[in-house]
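Exam revision sheet. Question 4 asks you to relate a sequence to its structure. Input first:
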Amino acid sequence: MKRKHVLLSLILLIAAFFRFYGLDWGLPFSLHIDEKNVLAVAERLAANISRNGSLNPQFSAYGALLFYLLLPLKLLLSPQNLLLGSRVIAACMGLFTVYLVFKLGEKFQNTGVGLLAALFTAISVVLFRESHFYTAETPLLFFILRSEEHTSELQSHSFISYAVFCLKKKK
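Answer key, structure tokens:
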């Protein structure tokens, strides 16, 4: 196995530890004000869908995607486990963010820069603290970095299938 893969795996393990350790903190209560709001709006959205089929969350402070991501979880989990399940989604997005930082650092500079950037992202207290709550920050950062990765790929591939469907030509 390449040294790069070993180091990246170690960094991702560190990131996973910091993001998943203590996810049940404060349960069964949500001690973060934004997390309470997100879960309340998701509950209201699910009720609106079952009542009249409306996909409008009637709340626009965080954008609707945050609530739509919770809908499948709402169907699968009991209300008692929804808070922990939503925190798992946030922790996974935080972990994927570390990987995206590596990919972008490697693409724009070199492997060493990507690994160092991923390490700093993995141990950043603010980033792993926010990964413990289902709030807008962690998914937003994930989607911003994912769109940056997609945009950088789009610049290096000048064909329409990649722009529309994210499909690469086979080499």
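Marking note for examiners. The mean pLDDT is 86.
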